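Design request, tokens follow.
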């Protein structure tokens, strides 16, 4: 199998300085008191005050620290040492208590050595993981009895549609072949990356739900959303996120899932 972990670590380490400086992440706005969380996440997760929360694949830690601002006792984990260094710096500058650990997500139970009330995974995370069964088992191992997983993600259906209109099926939804990409930029702008190769893995919605259930977690809800965080298709319009224009048939652009431990 291709050495996806080494390739992706190099790619994400080279993205970190670009992301920190970008308007997309708006690190300055966060330091000034902003939040990186979406309204539907806040509603669906609920009150986190006093609860222990682990954020897997936390990147710069802005989502992690947003939960800390709401009273959670947070731990963030990411395989990019450059990202974790930034996350620790942002936490210190903001005066927010947080623990950040550098490790592969599959090694989280050993790397963290603790269990949590909430395991949170933010958008754009699962596409970097080849084995969802192992991921779900990792999540289950991190949860205390009565705790829950909360996952917010881009809907996999969007990956089969053409990038211009989002109306034509041009890719195979069931293709699970690793996708090797050579792309000079990241999603935040035109800066050229030092390491431009990445490896991604497509997973269907059924793959996610089945992996979570097989790990012994009880699915509480699966919500599909008609909006997303960026102009995924050229035809989307900005309206409380990005959506299809009024009058056009809607498609699922994101989803969220919550599943509890016994």
């Amino acid at each position: 199998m291709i050495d996806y972990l080494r390739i992706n670590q190099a790619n994400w380490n080279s993205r970190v300085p670009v992301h920190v400086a970008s308007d997309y992440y708006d690190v300055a706005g966060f330091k000034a008191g902003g939040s990186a969380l979406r309204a539907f996440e806040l509603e669906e997760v609920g009150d986190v005050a006093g609860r222990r929360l682990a954020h897997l694949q936390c990147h710069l830690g802005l989502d992690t620290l947003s939960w800390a601002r709401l009273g959670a006792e947070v731990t963030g984990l990411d395989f990019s040492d450059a990202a974790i260094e930034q996350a620790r710096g942002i936490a210190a500058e903001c005066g927010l208590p947080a623990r950040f650990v550098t490790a592969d997500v599959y090694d989280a139970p050993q790397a963290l050595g603790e269990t949590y009330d909430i395991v949170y995974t933010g958008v754009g995370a699962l596409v970097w993981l080849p084995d969802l069964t192992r991921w779900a088992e990792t999540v289950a191992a991190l949860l205390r009895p009565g705790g829950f997983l909360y996952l917010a993600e881009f809907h996999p259906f969007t990956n089969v549609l053409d990038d211009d209109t989002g109306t034509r099926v041009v890719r195979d939804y069931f293709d699970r072949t690793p996708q090797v990409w050579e792309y000079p930029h990241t999603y935040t702008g035109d800066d050229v990356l030092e390491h431009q190769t990445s490896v991604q893995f497509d997973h269907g919605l059924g793959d996610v739900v089945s992996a979570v259930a097989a790990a012994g977690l009880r699915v509480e809800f699966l919500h599909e959303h008609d909006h997303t965080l960026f102009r995924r298709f050229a035809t989307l319009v900005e309206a409380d996120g990005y959506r299809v224009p009024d009058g056009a048939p809607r498609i699922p652009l994101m989803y969220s899932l919550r599943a509890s431990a016994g």
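Comment from the thread starter after seeing the answer: thanks! The chain has one domain: 4-24+38-260.
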